[in-house]
Amino acid sequence: MAIEEEVHKPVLVPEILELLDVKPGKIYVDGTLGGAGHALEVLERSSPDGKLIGIDRDTAILEIAEKRLKKFGERVRVVHGDFSELKKILESLHIQKVDGITLDLGVSSLQLDLAQRGFSFGKEGPLDMRMNPRAGETVLEKISKTDEKELADILFRYGEERLSFKIARGILSRLKEGSLKTTLDLAEVAWNAYPPRVRHKRPHPATRTFQALRIWVNKEMQNLESFLNEAPHLLGAGGRVAVISYHSLEDRLVKHSFRKWAAGETFEILTKRPIVPTDEEVEKNPRARSAKLRGLLRCS
Q1: SS (H, E, C) the chain
Q2: N or C end of the chain: smaller count of CB under 10 Å?
């Protein structure tokens, strides 16, 4: 029960419901179901006959979500998959168009707080970082196949890490020595790369390194780009897509994609500027601090 309470901290809930214009009798997709925080609110608002398809690639989280959503019965379909495969998932359910799609691109509390998942630099765990722990290579496996230049490029591109070469060199040196085994080993490399005078400033020296490697392992930017290229086609007239991002790379991609779609007459941007959490929400849930919400409407 404690894990469920910890994982369930949805961000910008009232703002999502308003942006999606949630109503009864409509079909909605939550492409990052997580602990079902947003999904619960969408189903309550769309009562008595609104439907929701919840998608997540993390099987452990899906088990929690299914339990939380069980009371809604046949109004919910929970699918193990990736939001980048949305078209194929909807086709398998014999659904052509939906009325709303939402993504929350943040890493869930369950993933961050369970050390064995390898996402946190504050807890010792294996160097894994896979969103789907049953598929793909771990971050350690992928690092072992890279060279210094490639790894530095990954740290700079996905983490905007200015000390990328120094950190990449340190990571591969520890790997060669056989002393790169846990998340704390990786965090120590980033910590040592920074000058002592700035190590204790925010953000933590390992923040950008862990972000970059997580994005790389899970192909997050590629998946988001695939989704943004396809999702608006899956909306019916009046349908809306809403995306919550947490770092500049994601937000920039969402912003530019929405602008591209809105260049014609079929789509309209709903958020000229991103919607951000209130101070009160950030105080209650510090992980919401960097959240940015953008929306797109299909007019016809």
Answers
A1: CHHHHHHCCCCCHHHHHHHHCCCCCCEEEECCCCCCHHHHHHHHHCCCCCEEEEEECCHHHHHHHHHHHHHHHHHEEEEECCHHHHHHHHHHCCCCCEEEEEEECCCCHHHHHCHHHCCCCCCCCECCCCCCCCCCCCHHHHHCCCCHHHHHHHHHHHHCCCCHHHHHHHHHHHHHHCCCCEHHHHHHHHHHHCCHHHCCCCCCCCHHHHHHHHHHHHCHHHHHHHHHHHHHHHEEEEEEEEEEECCHHHHHHHHHHHHHHCCCCCEEECCCCCECCCHHHHHHCHHHCCCEEEEEEECC
A2: N
Q: Where are the domains of the chain?
A: 2-110+221-298, 121-218
Q: What is the CATH number of domain 121-218?
A: 1.10.150.170
In the chain, % of residues over pLDDT 90: 82
> Per-residue pLDDT tens for 51-96?
999 999 998 889 999 999 999 999 999 999 999 999 999 999 999 9
Q: What percent of the chain has pLDDT over 70?
A: 97
CATH for the stretch 2-110+221-298: 3.40.50.150
